[in-house]
Amino acid sequence: MTLRVKFENVSKQYRLGLTRSSLPSILAHGAQRLLRRGGPENVSQRDFWALKEINFDLHPGESLALIGRNGAGKTTILKLLANITKPTNGKIESHGQLSALIELGAGFHPDLTGRENIYLNGAILGLSRRQISQRFDEIVDFSELAQFIDTPVKRYSSGMTVRLGFAVASCIEPEILLVDEVLAVGDAPFQQKCMRRIRGLIEQGTSIIFVSHNFYLVQAVCEKALYLKHGQIFHCGSAQEV
């Protein structure tokens, strides 16, 4: 069976305290280390492993939940898959078009209308203008924002922005979908509508990686789960068991 996602001994390390990579900041950091030489180690000199030797794979139509406390490494896995950051060690394989429901509406331009933002976000996700036009009516129908589609997004409520963001990201029918806590927002009918949409994508062969602290949603959406603790896999198995 074809693999959609594979993590093989993946680790991610961050250097605490050094947040910029420009030449002046690196030189300044080096000077500070020289001045502190012989003294107690500062937090900026410590390494932090957000993930350590993570292994899992995902096939078409499978759904995987990532659960654990805040800081366990769940979002780091999503960022690695979305190519927002690179692993320190290990190998990641990803096969197929990927869409991320991580920060819905984060890529919207407030001065552009809903219509214009649909085309903008569709282009960011790799669709041509023709492909977006073919899906445009479906996106608007799902968002239930036809009345406001030519209104600047800065006049939308947060709930309206979430509706449009979810509609754009899910209606392109990705082969891999990353979902991070987005179903915790919006009203109850919208959450149910999103759940039905996600289940429909799974039935069509989309692979889902789902992050949530809501165990009801985890069991409703996912077949299996990984329990992460301090950046490592503490337990894996069926969603109900984990």
Provide an overview of this structure.
This protein is α/β, with parallel strands linked by helices and 242 residues long. It has helices at residues 23-35, 74-81, 114-124, 129-143, 158-171, 188-203, 215-221, and strands at 5-15, 47-58, 63-67, 89-94, 98-101, 176-180, 207-211, 224-229, 232-238. The strands form two sheets. Strands 5-6-7-3-8-9 form a six-stranded mixed β-sheet, with helices on both faces. The chain is globular. The two termini are 25 Å apart.
Largest sheet: 6 strands, mixed
Measured by DSSP, the beta-strand proportion falls in 25-35%
Report Rg. 20 Å
Terminal CA distance reads: 25 Å
Please sum up the structure shown.
The protein has 242 residues and is α/β, with parallel strands linked by helices. Helices cover 35% and strands 25% of the residues. The protein is built from seven helices and nine strands; from the N terminus they run βαββαββαααβαβαββ.
SSE layout and pairing:
Blueprint: E1 5-15, H1 23-35, E2 47-58, E3 63-67, H2 74-81, E4 89-94, E5 98-101, H3 114-124, H4 129-143, H5 158-171, E6 176-180, H6 188-203, E7 207-211, H7 215-221, E8 224-229, E9 232-238
Parallel strand pairs: 3-7, 3-8, 5-6, 6-7
Antiparallel strand pairs: 1-2, 1-4, 8-9
Helix pairs in contact: 3-4, 3-5, 4-5
